[in-house]
Amino acid sequence: MSGNLSPAEIGKFLSAKGALRFVEPDMKLGLGTGSTAAWLVKLLAHTKRTQGLNFTAVATSYATTELATSLGIEIRGLDEVGQLDLTIDGADEFDPALNLIKGGGAALLQEKIVATASDKMVVITDKSKRVDALGAFPLPVEVVRFGFRTTQRLVSELLADQNVRGRRVTVRMAGDQPLVTDEGHHILDLHLEKIGDPHSLSAKLATIAGVVEHGLFLGIADAVVVGHGDGRLETQFAGRDDWQVEEIDLEAEAALLAALAG
């Protein structure tokens, strides 16, 4: 079955398909950014086309807007739509409390705005993103371009008093120039290895004038859906320790998976 796809990609597909159960007709949806969210957009377009699912969509990045539009999903502005019913997005890491690190795709500002303007947020991911403590993935921090090297220094100094294992701060590059986000900012990546107190770090980063937003999504996710390459699908809800586990028949999904992958 779809032998050209890695187990991780199959897991991403399954998690996105599992998240569709949270989508109800006529919902106002926030569509995330990244490789797992791309599977969701493809599945939503397929369901819209084959089953007539009606929904209103807001995107978290230009990349998601382009993909959705190319598949026949109209993207509208957040200010036009207002409060959303549900946002479905990926994550770079999640811990047992469903706290997240996001921003690997440099869309963290729009992602957080959309997620916090939603009644619920569901995270879709594969097993590699599950960690005991956040921090192995570099924490993205979006900063204004004016004085960004000074902001980088101030962030580095702040880390001296934080419960983190590493303290290296780098500027994310696009070729030989600092990357510019959709909103015209730069990204600092904080290589922390392990974050002992995410809430403290979140509060302290917010005090630096040049920091626009950071990739700690704390207390925002309502559920996480994890897909596995062997067909297992796991769902955990915020405030609960147990996982709901089910087995998906991969052969039954083969045609759809191949069609969307192509």
Question: Which helices and strands occur, and which strands form pairs?
Answer:
Layout: H1 7-19, E1 27-31, H2 35-51, E2 55-59, H3 62-70, H4 78-81, E3 84-89, E4 93-94, E5 100-101, H5 108-116, E6 118-126, E7 139-143, H6 148-159, E8 168-171, E9 173-174, E10 177-178, E11 186-191, H7 198-205, E12 211-214, E13 216-217, E14 223-227, E15 232-237, E16 244-247, H8 250-261
Describe this structure in a few short sentences:
The protein has 262 residues and is α/β, with parallel strands linked by helices. It has helices spanning 7-19, 35-51, 62-70, 78-81, 108-116, 148-159, 198-205, 250-261; strands at 27-31, 55-59, 84-89, 93-94, 100-101, 118-126, 139-143, 168-171, 173-174, 177-178, 186-191, 211-214, 216-217, 223-227, 232-237, 244-247. It has eight helices and 16 strands.
Can you describe what's shown?
This protein has helices at residues 7-19, 35-51, 62-70, 78-81, 108-116, 148-159, 198-205, 250-261; strands at 27-31, 55-59, 84-89, 93-94, 100-101, 118-126, 139-143, 168-171, 173-174, 177-178, 186-191, 211-214, 216-217, 223-227, 232-237, 244-247. With 262 residues, the chain is of the alpha/beta class. The protein has two domains: 7-127 and 219-261, Rossmann fold (3-Layer(aba) Sandwich), CATH 3.40.50; 139-213, Alpha-Beta Plaits (2-Layer Sandwich), CATH 3.30.70. The strands form four sheets. The chain has a seven-stranded mixed beta sheet, sandwiched between helices. A four-stranded antiparallel beta sheet has the order 8-11-7-12. Helix 1 packs across helix 2. It is globular, with a radius of gyration of 18 Å. The chain starts with 6 loop residues before the first helix and ends with a helix.
